[in-house]
Design goal:
Family: Belongs to the class-II pyridine nucleotide-disulfide oxidoreductase family.
Pfam family, one: Pyr_redox_2
Shape: elongated
Enzyme class: oxidoreductase
Number of strands: 19
Largest sheet: 7 strands, mixed
Mean pLDDT: 96
Bound molecules: flavin-adenine dinucleotide
Distance between the termini: 19 Å
Radius of gyration: 21 Å
Protein name: Thioredoxin reductase
Number of helices: 6
Oligomer: single chain
Subunit structure: Homodimer.
């Protein structure tokens, strides 16, 4: 039986691991399907403090893992498929490891960006296709960029990207946008944004040096068109990775875990959530790491309170 189990090894989980290991709580960290988390799928990270020349995503995550291991954190490969949080100790069912019992649980399983599932899309992530304007916008200075989506986050990403891009083309399958009026108005008032509505994205076109265009179908005419671009931002939402929790933790309407404001405590005492799985707003490595630290400290205090 463990005092603390952390599920997920992105910046949130690994930061929590460093803190709990240094507090002598010997945490077990379950890595899941993507050891190191989302940053292992990118190249250069330029906005994580402490690296004036930037650092490659996989290297940053490897460093965090080594830092946790140095203080005695135990890592295991496995996928948590089920949890029983109805009583403490909690029980986790981990594919490949069986059942694990723990006094406390830190959930840091992230949120996966939704993709369109069109040819050329996934293979060009990091070569012109992105799901994060805050992370990658800077790489597209003075270039023409496409943003795909019709919700608030697509409007926000499009507006943000006009800081760098020479032009932003907003592509949406329908003529109407799902975004709130205020977000639409803001985007419509932006001279750098042009609109390619009622277009269904069909294929990302790329050459040796990355993305060169997006093939779309004009739904009004049935004609295929190619919009030339070097950057495509897919902004159609994220799915928080919470299936294994079986609805035992309270979420918002988008499926993000809810925590008591200013803490990482969920509705189940002893279960804490950090990183993108509880963050529909910032979704950055540094904010994930920050809440990972908070989760570890909340967890330590919880253990102290139940054992004193
Ligand atoms: C291509 C790309 C580039 C990015 N670039 C930047 C950048 O430059 N700067 C920046 O600040 N942010 C960037 N981000 C965002 C940043 O990566 C995320 O905000 C951050 O990784 C979130 O950390 P996290 O710890 O919450 O979760 P994640 O990094 O998503 O990690 C989730 C972890 O949970 C595990 N997991 C999930 N489900 C289960 C399960 N059922 N059982 C066990 N384990 C499970 C996964 O294996 C993984 O280890 C980028 C994201 C992407 C996709």
């Amino acid at each position: 039986m463990y005092k603390a189990v952390i599920v997920g090894t992105g910046p949130a989980g690994l930061t929590a691991a460093i803190y709990l290991a240094r507090a002598n709580l010997n945490p077990l960290i379950i890595e899941g399907p993507e050891p190191g988390g989302q940053l292992t799928t990118t190249t250069e990270v330029e906005n994580f403090p402490g690296f004036p020349d930037g650092i490659m995503g996989p290297e940053l995550m490897d460093n965090m893992r080594k830092q946790a291991e140095r203080f005695g954190a135990e890592f295991r490969s496995g996928w948590v498929s089920e949890t029983d949080l109805s009583q403490r100790p909690f029980t986790l069912t981990v594919d490949g490891l069986g059942e694990i019992q723990t006094e406390t649980l830190i959930v840091s399983t992230g949120a996966s960006a939704k993709y369109l599932g069109i040819p050329g899309e996934r293979e060009n992530v990091g070569r012109g296709v992105s799901t994060c304007a805050t992370c990658d916008g800077f790489f597209f200075r003075n270039k023409k960029i496409i943003v795909i989506g019709g919700g608030d986050s697509a409007m926000e990403e499009a507006n943000f990207l006009t800081r760098f891009a020479s032009e932003v083309v907003l592509v949406n399958r329908r003529n109407e946008l799902r975004a709130s009026k205020i977000m639409q108005d803001r985007a419509r008032q932006n001279d750098k944004i042009s609109w390619s509505l009622n277009r269904t994205p069909l294929e990302v076109i790329a050459g040796e040096h990355g993305v060169t265009g997006l093939k779309v179908m004009n739904n009004a005419t049935g004609q295929e068109e190619i919009i030339e671009t070097q950057g495509i931002f897919v902004a159609i939402g994220h799915t928080p990775n919470t299936k294994f929790l079986g609805g035992q933790l309270t979420t918002d309407e988008h499926g993000y875990l809810l925590v008591n404001p200013g803490t990482t405590a969920t509705n189940v005492p002893g279960v804490f959530a950090c990183g993108d799985v509880q963050d529909n707003r910032y979704r950055q490595a540094i904010s994930a790491a920050g809440t990972g630290c908070m989760a570890a400290l909340d967890c330590e205090r919880f253990l102290e309170s139940v054992h004193s």
